[in-house]
Amino acid sequence: MEQTKHYFYVLMCADNTYYGGYTTDIVRREAEHNRGFGCKYTFTRRPVELIHHEVFENRSLAMKAEYAFKKQSRLAKERYLKSKKVEES
Question: Is residue 35 part of a domain?
Answer without folding.
Answer: yes
